[in-house]
Amino acid sequence: MSSDGDDLYSVFIDYEQKRNFSIHDVSHDRVMQTTAQNDFEMQKRTLKHILKDQEFNIPEYQRSYSWTEHQHRQFWDDIRQFVNADLITDEENVSDVFFSTMYFAVDADSEVYDVIDGQQRLTTTHILLRVILEHLQEIEKAAIEEDELADLWEWERNTIEELLYVVGDYGQREPRLTLNKHDAEFFDALIQGTEAQIDYLTSDLEFDIHGNNSNAIRISRCRERFGITTDELGELDVADSLPSNRFFRLYDSHEKLLSAYEFYHKKIKTIVDRADTTDDMVRALLNVSRYLQHAFHVGEYVIRQAEADFRMQIFEILNDRGVELTKIDRIRAAVVNAFYDPEDGDNYIRKWESIVSEFGGDDGRIDDYLSVYLTTVDADVDTIGDASDELTNAFDTRKLDGKATPRLEDPEDAKEFISRADELVGYYKQITDPDLDRGDLQLAAHKQEIQEILIRLNVQGMDQWRPLVLALYFHADANSEADAATLYNVLDAIEKLNFRRLLVSENPNIFSNIFIEAVDEFELSPLGDTGLENELDRTLIEYLIDHTRSEAASLFGDRFINLATQAQDWNTRSTKLLFGRITHEHYRNSGGNLERTLDMSGIHIEHVLPQTPVTDSTEPVWLPKFFPPESTEEDLVEAVDRYLELEHRKRTESEADLKENEEKDRAKIEEYIKQRFIDDLGNFLLLGEGDNIRASNRPLSQKLPQYYNHVDEFTSIHPNRYFTPDEGPTDRDELENLRAQYEAKHNDATQRTKIDEDLKEEFNSLWTHATMKDRRVELLLDILETLRFDALEDEFGMETSEEETHEKVRELTDEVFENRISLQSL
């Protein structure tokens, strides 16, 4: 430490000057400026005076703990200037601190202060004092050489404990600060130490959830972050009873509390590690603790015997300056205030807390849910986006300028509004769950089909369907097969409409009002008690079709066929989902196992003509075979040859790169091939992840054996049928011969086995732009079949004359490809 003068480690700063010390001490006013103490004309107290002999309660209308590292760094900066200062007598190199104002409310018959403003700073101060206490507790008194310093060490431990804890009615130690119900139990464990933390980790909270869940943390990881060692587990004899590998939900505010503890633990540990001796360590800890207690000044305002509304008004005006109140913070405050007085008010506050807990305290997810919920109950809110903007108006006691009706104005309406919001959370989480288990659906039938559609809808970039589906699902009788069929049929129609939108590149905003207005039109608000009427699905689907057609006629009839046929540069995610739908539909219509499903999480889009069609520029295989001279316009063949030449030069020339105009030509031809052929519907199939990686950019003669690694899965995927002997141009005997030769080569350790060259040539020549066009026609017909509506009589002509529809799609595709293989589009 400093040898030139006094510093944090060598001198004891005396703030109270009530006794004479034999150790090296100095009065605080001789080493620091006392600006906050002397220059503010207001009633102010030190932090120690605020904390001493007082209990604090964070009211339920307050936000949860929200400080992040940004605020912690700002707080620590005030302490750091003291830690790093030269504490030399008569040189005021450090200042005390004005730590903002704190507003408290207290009733005449209560000893507990409600914290109206300042809870973030108050909570953080308790965490920092707890960290300092832990470091003091780690020091053995016998290791301190100076007796008076040892006495001060013991005295400071007792002081911090008195500031942090109070003795409860039954003699147990309890924190002086109680957070709101959402955070109280976790904070108590954090602030009380190891045994309380282990009790928390072995309690009956929301443990044993899946690790993929939002905010999930393994118990062993949380134990490590608490700082609980394996030795401590052994001493407490809980090593075997702690379910270390299980997961539980660490809510957002709990994560922030734990992160605060870790932040200050790291800062204090750095100070401790810099000490040369145990005595230096003690002095440093005492000085930091006492600087926080005595040099941090607070403007204290106490409101006595104030009505709840008055306290709320102050809260709304005086939110913590460190972090602005979020929308969900304000809604929470409004809910608590609305149910402050009723006898059963706590019940509805608990319902609100249940909603918050279901989403792990994540404001964004809570906002998403409440916005969808509001659109189902308020006919004046037109879109989910509008609903998000109107949430604070809906959760209010008086009508303001917004569209939404204030739902907390009438006590009985408020109870119904909050109760139904709590009740619908489970339904909402199921319909938006990307890992939905069909067994969780509260339906009497069609669980598998509904699960498949919901999982696909949730990754299609459109959420406007959620209000309508939420309302239908809520009203569906769990024991009624008819209600389950209604939900399935409407979901099926919604997915068909959205797939059509995706295929013609229509904006999702065409659905902004349609699904929400349907809730009101068919009186499906969850605040009503009506069930699902007979034939509701038929009339509702007709409504959706009619209103969508008025917004986007391109999604129907011949216009849809034309646009879908002309589409290029197909989106792989949408195509994968569409192929999945076609496959599942084929499973059910083929008369086989109706319960069979395709696990789409392990399935990927495979490009037959690879995304990187040139792997070896000295012997390119793919492009010369895909564009054979005998069936390709001469100009296009020359362009492909030009591309191969430039690609080879780019990879092999040792001098400068291609000339600018040559690189432009190369990139232009490459993009042309990619958009018109590689990323085309006809070039896609579905493969399992491992097979997709192994097939990669290889020639087709090497890809096909990889396709057949899992033959049952590959051939069961209906869009893959072109590459099966039953429905494609592949000869069964030749395919089996090819697979046998590749298996023999794979098993030959000597690497002497060769593949028959004629066989390789046969399969490498199989995939051309002409064969891709043929397959594309079949896939377009599959799409028309899976997306057609029974409500639209023979919309695509497939019922009266499937052959004519086939020919129409063939002619349109011929026109498209005639243009594609012409250099006019290049």
UniProtKB/TrEMBL annotation:
Residues 566-724 form the GmrSD restriction endonucleases C-terminal domain. Pfam families: GmrSD_C, GmrSD_N. Residues 48-334 form the GmrSD restriction endonucleases N-terminal domain. InterPro entries: GmrSD_C, GmrSD_N. This is DUF262 domain-containing protein.
